[in-house]
TrEMBL record, chains A, B:
Protein name, UniProt field: Nicotinate phosphoribosyltransferase
PTM annotation, UniProt: Transiently phosphorylated on a His residue during the reaction cycle. Phosphorylation strongly increases the affinity for substrates and increases the rate of nicotinate D-ribonucleotide production. Dephosphorylation regenerates the low-affinity form of the enzyme, leading to product release.
Signal peptide, first to last residue: none
Pfam families: NAPRTase_N
This enzyme's EC code(s): 6.3.4.21
Native organism: Microbacterium sediminis
Top-level taxon in the UniProt lineage: Bacteria
């Protein structure tokens, strides 16, 4: 497309793309924006290197003119968007990317890849975090996601309310608290379960968590307390009917005097399983597969659409795809979340007449403005990047989640918690 | 674990880990191994750099002794496994990793991340490829997978029978044929649909594929043929009821004399949608979301378990986890696919008494041996890496898929196509 657009001159038309979701996957009641800080970091490095250009040239993918364009590529446009950690609803203008057509269209795959993945994980993670209530949640799913996605997933889960990750690379890159766990191979490595427990306590002290289900849970718990004493930090259970087993293990621990020893469970948990365990004596959850794969919805289904552009005379016109099932809404959008006594009741999206935003927060005193500048004429706002961006996103998420109406917290499939209302500024 | 194992001396115990799947996700009838070549490439670079070691030291994650171990880490063990592209069934010993406990356990997350993701994609892709029959399939899902996973997904889809990808990085890295497509933004960028089509033809010639559903499909097809003439290469439809629309568009194209113009469809296809379109005039499919996310099963659910190790006296013993729902089968395994007149009827897994394989292909003249050496005492077999590894894996997959019984080709949920039979060599 860039090749053909450079040829016919349309590549330089000033354009505005919008990244949004037509619907919320899986009948979710809200979505969580995640990946923004990661996207900005990737945008900072977004260049075409010699090996890449050589491949495009050798395989005649694009013309020489396009190769020169790519060689010099540097995003000099602007991006406005929802803060990372913010909630979103169908039609929320999550990102608005402005620049020449070529400069902005080339970011489509990158922006969608990052936000679709990270938001899918964050949305699932937020539901799990709501289901877990005050009990700590740890992300332990690295092995069930591709090796780099796993790091991004740990980051998204933390933003959406998880407290820690077993992914050390996520700890190093994004400043997320990390935790570890002993695997069954640790027990199997030793000649007896008791040897394994003794070695773990010698290395990590009595505050460690022993995995007690390699052979027989009841014997495992008995051995654990015999070896560690009643001051043992915790036991982990990774198989069986967790509700029943947790109750049995709690009773056994209490009978052995280990009333302070905590119970962690970890077997194929998702938000529904976590909710079902609320009434049972579980102290913390470790979640793997379901969080890193978006609990059944591994992509958020966001799209990136041209919504406005210059015409041949330099005028500014809104554009939209007309397909009934996959249409889009043209024009520059300004978004507000309207609140009644602090509780959200509407996602208001005002569509501007032309290139300039026509609505301001002052127009809606009951509303919170949702968009912030992320990139201004090529300058990336560093506040959203790196560990500080992650910390800010988590704080923002936990704060704005409090604005959700109670019905938004249920796990069953439903309509979005609040409606999205489009308002035409010209009307 | 490594920290504690270095402390109590068990880190150096010779160990054997097995990577396998307890079941096939989603009632699939077979699984497809993918990611092996990628794993070997990552293993070649698997080191701990200064920044990583500094993080582990600064955060007191491991002891000084362990830091030294990690600093010098280099895998010097051996890996035997199924060829990439091979089919697998529950309990198939997909990889067997031999080394000291520390050397082998440290690869757990990497091996599982790569194989779980890539095999999930390849398994879904193979089903789509079977459903598509002779019609070409292109992978176009980069925007619905995290940015690096997307490249791995394109690779896995190609191994499992897709013919091309829109992911240029996958083309560059893995030698996969690439293709491109015009988006709706291309049409919307231009003042009229006709302008967009003329510009595309000027850049790419008459053999290109025009996207005809931005405004009105019937008018789009009429404009496309008026502009390009009846020698137009193809049209793409990305919305609506594809079966009905394809039939209408075919009739319209034929009436306009464009009998050779092909129809590509691309809207939310999965293996079921592809199968349902078999009787309609569609020439090729572009698949996005469903293939890169494993069509509902984004991870293959493989695990990495210690199956044998030295004991304190240097003897060799099989070990296994006993949990009823998540048990494992100890011991070194040798795997064969038994064939009757070229059709598979059994996955035979022979369990050795000790450290040496006891079964050889000569023991089962009707069988194909499934395991090949991938790494021998630290030396990686380069035949499996890079583009040559991908080409070999694809060829292998398409060949061994012919061995499947007819019932394996149905898409509905079922038991595995062939049973896995464990045989005890000592029995």
């Amino acid at each position: 497309m860039i090749d053909a657009a450079l040829r016919d001159g349309t590549a330089s038309r000033h354009s505005m793309f919008e990244l949004f979701a037509r619907r919320l996957s899986g009948g979710r009641r809200f979505g969580v924006v995640a990946g923004t800080g990661r996207l900005l970091g990737l945008l900072r490095e977004f260049r075409f290197d010699d090996a890449e250009l050589k491949y495009l040239a050798d395989h005649h993918v694009v013309s020489r003119e396009t190769l020169t364009y790519l060689e010099n590529y540097r995003f000099t446009g602007s991006i406005t968007g929802y803060r990372e950690g913010e909630l979103y609803f169908p039609g929320s203008p999550i990102l608005t990317v402005e620049g020449t057509f070529a400069d902005a269209v080339i970011l489509e795959t990158l922006a969608l890849s990052v936000l679709n993945h990270d938001s899918a994980v964050a949305t699932a993670a937020s539901r799990m975090s709501i289901a877990a209530g005050e009990r700590p949640l740890a992300e332990m799913g690295a092995r069930r996601a591709a090796e780099r996605s796993a790091v991004a997933a740990a980051r998204a889960a933390y933003i959406a309310g998880f407290g820690a990750t077993s992914n050390l690379e996520a700890g190093r890159t994004w400043g997320i608290p990390t935790m570890g766990t002993a695997a069954h191979s640790w027990t199997l490595l030793h000649d007896t379960e008791e040897d394994a427990f003794r070695a773990q306590i010698a290395a990590l002290g009595h505050d460690t968590t022993l995995l007690v289900d390699t052979y027989d849970i009841e014997k495992g718990v008995e051995t654990a307390i015999r070896v560690a004493g009643p001051q043992l930090g915790g036991v982990r259970i990774d198989s069986g009917d967790l509700a029943i087993v947790a109750a049995e293990v709690r009773a056994q621990l209490d009978a052995l005097g280990a009333t302070g020893t905590k119970i962690t469970v970890t077997s194929d948990l998702d938000e529904y399983a976590i909710a079902a365990l609320a009434a049972y004596p579980v102290d913390s959850y470790g979640v793997g597969t379901s969080v890193v794969t978006g609990s059944g919805y591994p992509t958020a289904g966001m799209v990136y659409k041209l919504v406005a552009r210059q015409d041949a005379n330099g005028g500014w016109i809104a554009v939209a795809k007309k397909a009934q099932d996959k249409g889009s809404q043209g024009g520059l959008k300004t978004a507000f979340r309207r609140l009644d006594r602090g509780i959200a009741y509407e996602e208001l999206v005002e569509i501007a007449d032309g290139f300039e935003r026509s609505a301001t927060p002052a127009d809606y005193p009951d509303a919170r403005a949702l968009q912030v500048p992320l990139v201004v004429r090529g300058e990336i706002d560093t506040a959203h990047e790196g560990p500080q961006g992650v910390a800010a996103a988590r704080e923002h998420h936990l704060r704005v989640r409090e604005e959700l109406p109670v019905r938004a917290l249920a796990l069953s499939k439903s309509d979005p918690a609040i409606p999205t209302v489009f308002a035409d500024a010209g009307a």
